[in-house]
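On clarity, I found the account of how folds are encoded harder to follow than it need be. Since the whole study asks how a given chain folds, the encoding of that fold should be made plain. For the editor and my fellow referees, an illustration may be useful. An entry of this sort, consisting of the sequence and the corresponding backbone structure tokens, reads as follows:

:::
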Amino acid sequence: MSPQAKWEYLEAIRGRYRSSGRRDKGLILDEFCAVCGYSRKYAVRLLSRGRPRRRNRPGPPRRYGPEVVTVLKRIWLAAEQMCSKRLKAALPLWLPHYERKYGALPEATRQRVLALSPATMDRLLKPIRAKSGRKGLSGTRPGTLLRQQIPIQTQPWDITQPGFLEADTVAHCGNSLAGSFIWSLTFTDIYSGWTENRAVWNKGSAGVLAQIQDIEEQLAFPLLGFDSDNGSEFLNHHLWRYFAQRPAPVAFTRSRPYRKNDNAHVEQKHWTHVRQLFGYDRFDRPQMLDPMNRLYAQEWSLLQNYFCPSMKLKSKERLGARYRRCYESPRTPYERLLACDQIAPQAKQRLQQTFASLDPFALKKGIERQLKIIFNLLRSPRS
């Protein structure tokens, strides 16, 4: 029998095979195999072709449908694509604002969103995650003027109360450290994780001091300790006098040279608070400085400190050549300050009033608007 004749015979009996019962299907299959010389399994596939195929995924049907994925995706993108363990803690904070923006969710959908585990979030978000392996340049230049006066911090800070800050810089230099450009300053409170950023031109000592003074006025807690690397933007007489010559001096210390782990609390913020926002472009236009500082001090600080939970190391145990780390449940810096007994009631009340007035989706929209202004200045022709 020719291949064409076999195909015509298959089309003639396929409909009768699909509409028959189990016993008649067996008889039709025996006849089809005898006439065409096919194996039984191959004949079954030919006669069943066109029928709805059974799903290959084993186990129970999917629990989380597209309505859950849509909510998760929108919040994840607005929350600066945080990791799933932090996103799990952020969902209760973001959902009320999500419903005001996009409409109320059915109770079943809301419960499913809140019940998502970090592993399930990773699986649902995997198709839309962005990857970036690009790294920036290090621009720390040693400052030698005050190395004898400013001691090296060799013991852990007191992390039972807020007020002990770590500081570092990030260079917006593109692919070259030559010339003048903007630097970002990052300051992180070790206890709460409260992080503030500011931008300065060329790491000048006067500009760095002015931004530190502005940040200190905005903090809800007094400044007790300040630890930086060995860069000349921090190790200078202006900053040393600012911390030392006051009624209650601030402990000013520095890390060991070439030991990034000494400032691990602030180093880990460079990606989430600077690079994820501005990337690795070269910012060499002074007119970009004011828009960057407005963004850092307003929308960006409010979003990160009030609505973005962070993880905090609880304990670390050495097992042979490895360490086993245990972390606290993710919380926002705002939540940690509210739970702290050392914060004054008036300061807590101001924090709560600020939180009640905020909408994270409105903050995200304001961030995008400010970024558009900044990058338009970057792309504009030089005068």
